[in-house]
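Hi again,

Forgot to attach this to my earlier email, sorry! This is the prediction with S-adenosylmethionine bound. I've pasted everything inline since the attachment limit keeps bouncing my files.
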Amino acid sequence: MNMISSENKELLLNAIEFVKHHKPNQALMQTEACDDNLLHAVNAIAYIQKQDFASALRELKLSFGFADLPSITQIFKFILKRIYEHNNILNADRALRGEAFKVICLGRFLYDLGYNLEVKNLSMLTGSSGVLDYAFLKALAINFNVKNYLEIGAWFGESIANLADVAENCISISLEKNDFRNVEYIETNLNKENFCYYFSEKQNNIKSIFADTKTYDFSNLKTKFDLVFIDGDHSYEGVKNDTEKVFNIIDTEHCIVVWHDFKNIYNKALPNTINAVIDALSPELLSRIHLVDTNICGIYLPAKYSGTIPCYQDRNEIFSYNIQLNIEQNHLGK
Ligand SMILES: C[S@@+](CC[C@H](N)C(=O)[O-])C[C@H]1O[C@@H](n2cnc3c(N)ncnc32)[C@H](O)[C@@H]1O
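Structure tokens for the complex follow:
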């Protein structure tokens, strides 16, 4: 029997207490130092699935040792998922107490920039992002002096065209315009001619790589990126693939990563994305993920930027936006 050390035992007990009190990030922190496997974890997980944290704790207290069980990191990633699946992930009070992903107050972030932002080329068609997604990306690029931007999934080129106004060098990896997945969606769901890359083709600081990220070799990218936007294949496998490949090539102490469709507008986790990200990243990297209160993005912030984006929510304050619509008619080619 492979007994767990008393030091690790204490860490685990602390971690389980955090899980019991819905504090997944702290639980993960506690387990980072553990290297033993955990007996009866499977039983404990069953209790956790039933939201019976007291029984899970009792089970784990009884059982330390034995090989061939899930690693502690795997167990806590699982626990993290269960908690987020069952809870509203954007409870500002909980986030402020550090009991969930921290939540960025987007209004305050944009307000603190000190000037008005302009976003353009919004088709508002299904599959495109929203005004505050684009505003967030653009504000990040300005605030953190982003020179090199990478985007996975460009669609009509709306997001990357907005970023190209503020970043020097923009690269997208996205399916061929005539890939059957684009054609099928645009023709069937939108009943449109193929408008892929319509907006990005117009800007000369955008380089488009037409490839499937499942097979594309990311080591071909020789650029040191400052900001990456992951908005391609939104299946679990797609997000996991893109997240792993992106984190393999970036400097995690420098580069910001944003995921679209991390949560919905009702502040519920979108399981495909959140589970894929939890499975792709280490507990340490996960602990640096934030959510955004009024768009549907999640963001990885390197440690050096920790605390530089406001997460503070004042219950007596809301931010509002004055929008002037300038409507353009667009025709394809010819
Ligand atoms: C939601 S749209 C992107 C929207 C765009 N970022 C915006 O906000 O304007 C998703 C895009 O990802 C692309 N895509 C889907 N699966 C992909 C894959 N496996 N590899 C590369 N691109 C993919 C689609 O062709 C589509 O262009």
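The chain has two domains: 6-86, 96-305. The longest helix spans residues 6-20.

That should be everything now.

G.
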